[in-house]
Amino acid sequence: MPPKSPVWDLFHSNRTKYKTDDTHLNAWCKACVTAEIRQIDATASEHDPPLTEQEKFDEALRRLEPICGKRKRLEAHVEKCKVLTPQERASALLRIGKENVPPPPPSTPGPSRFPLSHCPPSTPATPSTPLTGGRPLKRARTSLDELLVQLTQAEFDVDACKLFVACGITWNAANNAEMQKFTKKWCHSMSDRRVLSGRVLDGEMKKIEKTVKDAVAGLLVTGQCDGWKNVAKDHVVSTVMTAGNEPYLVCTHDMTGEPKTSDRLLELVLSDINYMVEKYGVTVIAWCTDDGPDGKKMRRLLQQRYLWIMVLVCWAYQINLVVGDFLNLKLDLLLIIAQCLEVIKWFNNHGTALALLKDEMKFTYEGKIWSLVLSVITRWTAHYLSSTHLLKVKGAVTSCIHRHEEKLKIVKDSWFWDGLTKIQAILEPLALAANITQASHTRLDHVLLTLGNLFRIYSTSSTRTLDTEIAYGIQSSLEKRWEKADQDIFILAVFFNPYIRSRIFSPAVLTESSLYSIVDKVFKRFYGCGGDLVLYKAFTDYVRGEGDFSPEEMNLEWIKEMFNAEPSNAPPEGSNALLKLAILFGSVHTKYRNRLKAEQVHKIGVLKMDIKRSQLAEGHGTNRSKRKFRQIESPSDENSPAAPLDPTDFRALADSLINEAIDDDIEPDPSPTPVASAQPSNPGSTSSRHGRGKIPLELLFSYDLTAVALNNRTGMDFYWKGGIRNIEEELRQCDEDEEDKELSTNTTLV
């Protein structure tokens, strides 16, 4: 009888035969059995009697599928076992290979710079039969060194692919001669760029898809899509799925040459929804788009098909439309912002004047230097930061001018500074609102509370520094945006915030019975049936703070204290998932990599987002310098004109905002093609979504009671301070950039 193979040292056997095989025994991998026993311990209930070690072992064997006791089958399992780490697998292969791999020739011991797993493959001169004699092997086999190199080469390719994606290295660098020499000298040969960007990248995509599926399966998710033109001027549309406050890139469509219509966009959205449901096992409950002409009609068609899906518009874009309405009211204020940018450009372009200004800042502000931010981002919030910073250094600028008699008549004119102060006061609340509504964690209650707070701020009774015409115009614009919204779900989102409930709503407009009417209608819309007495009892307990919904039973104070004590609960940075995605795609698909296809850019984006999630989970978030507004290129929106806007030309940007606000007032042709309703898993009501009359912002909230509630943050400013902190952080980043620049200059001089 031949001796038992060493591979059996890695397996258990209970001496039973494998199925109908009378020759070979059942085998179970020891590593898999150990992992299964750990799983049994982890899932054991406290109420169940404890199992003995033998009982756990027997239960693990019962759960695991046995392996045929053939040597080939056992060795194949060792090579593919997912439980073994690469080091354990290499050690196991060493033990297995002793029977077929000749011992190495004797050599004097000495240090080696290569680990065992990175040894070069055996040379052809290595004999394939044992040096100590004995009969030759039945067939030629790959040497152990070659097998180890193959395994580690595959791991090296995966790590190289991740490194290239994380660091933004082009695939062509893999074929660079210096890269090939470096990697071959120190570790492995670098694989061809087509291997890394093809087979290896596709393999990582499959792993990520499985990881995402495990993380989101069974969850309620929201979807959002947007389109833009990449560096190659191709029109692409990308879809992002958000689950548990985490965005996941799902699909990217190359729409070049296809019609840009609402019907085509609806086809893409329906296709992506089906893909998300079938691929990841999620339930899509909401969909968000921009407010372009195709998106506007597409949302209406999607509502007709799925009444139980909340179809929303991007509210950061709606705030931009409010700014456009304001600029259309006061065109004379555009001149002040244009002059503000001219002053900033003049100082930044004249080194001597800028040096004098910095000296004046040190003298005026006790050694503090603030930067003059000249924005090159085509977003009005960046110009708000520019005007705010210039206003901040007003004293130093005017003092510098008086001392050195420069020909800058603008800064000598008090009308300019008075107008700049007025603009800053008008735009500041809107800038805060834009910061809140464009955050990646923005919720429906954030939006409605922000709208209510803006309406309160711009009311003529509380805004004494603003013209009545401006205040009334901004309020009218806010009412116009709110009237088009799906008001029921926004009202309920605020109502179901247990820290607010119904206390800030006007009791004359939203009585307890009218609130329950909204609850019952939305419940019927989502679940296809009306509420019962259980729902009504829960509603009354909640609205009155009684029973299970009392503050004590819900532990509201404890949750608040725990939240405030956790540093990771700082307000999120103001940038939504699609904007981040557009910037990410822009960093990948550059003018030097303009031959990348949309599918390839999509895969790189998916892997890059997964790497970032892994780094944050491991506590390896990058602590890099803050971004500089002068160095950011804004992605090209699909609705942008062919000629890009000059970011320093605020008049052109203002004209764009004004035109967008005017176009938004013009509804598209309401003649959609009838669409057959699809049956969802939980069909909602087929009744009209807006049976009740719309409630204007003016009547929705009790603004007097809200003003009293502002001190304890139970009113409409519930999330307002987070926006203030984010705006202050933006300004602080500009100052840090200036300090870093000064430090770099001084270091260079030393």
UniProtKB/TrEMBL annotation:
Species for this entry: Lyophyllum shimeji
Top-level taxon in the UniProt lineage: Eukaryota
Bias (Polar residues) ranges: 674-688
Region (Disordered): 97-137, 615-648, 663-691
Identification of the protein by name: DUF659 domain-containing protein
